[in-house]
Amino acid sequence: MDKPFQCVGSSSNAHVGREFEHIAYRFFLQQGLHLYPGHIVEVGVGSTKKAHAFDLGCSEQKVVVECKSHRWTAGHNVPSAKLTVWNEAMYYFHVSPPDYRKIMFVLKDLRRGGGESLASYYLRTYNHLVPVGIEFWEYDESIGGALRVGT
User: Fold this and answer.
1) Would you say which domain of life the source belongs to (predicted)?
2) DSSP 8-state secondary structure symbol assigned to residue 139
């Protein structure tokens, strides 16, 4: 394979990400949240702020969403580099406005053997990096819906 890090069966990883963001958009619309792609919010530590685009969000409803459609590796190992991106999302949530609802919308992918989902693994091993109040939602492709997981 000339693109070893590309999602199997997709034209590009960016395409997969946009499709997953659209799934999240439709899911939250059914929940009464009217979100917009590429929602920009001022983030930063202290008085220094900079514009950051979240995958989805809304100023009126004060919500920001990050979407991640990551899976366990082909050998069912931990996708460490991808979880680093999740850690980055946690930091952006941490430095975003405190009055915003913050949602991490992830694909439910179960590890062979123990059956632990990637989100459950992340919350178990990286909980110390998850700011208080962050909501994790897992989208289950088999049912076409999402459930809140974790605390």
Assistant:
1) Bacteria
2) E
Residue 57 · residue 35 · CB < 8 Å: yes
Which residues are registered as beta bridge partners of 137? 105, 148
Domains in the chain, ordered, with CATH? 13-149 (3.40.1350)
Please tell me the distance from the alpha carbon of residue 55 to that of residue 21, in angstroms, as a whole number: 7
> How many other C-beta atoms are found inside a 10 Å radius of the C-beta of residue 92?
16
Task: Write the CA distances from 80 to 76, 125, 126, integer angstroms.
Answer: 12, 12, 11
* pTM more than 0.85: yes
- Neighbour count for residue 114 (Cβ, 10 Å): 9
Task: Measure the CA–CA gap between 4 and 45, rounded to whole angstroms.
Answer: 37
pLDDT in tens, 68-79: 999 999 988 999
What does the alpha-carbon distance between residue 47 and residue 82 come to, in Å, rounded to a whole number?
30
Residues 117 and 149 sit within 8 Å (Cβ to Cβ): yes
Tokens describing residue 64: 């920001």
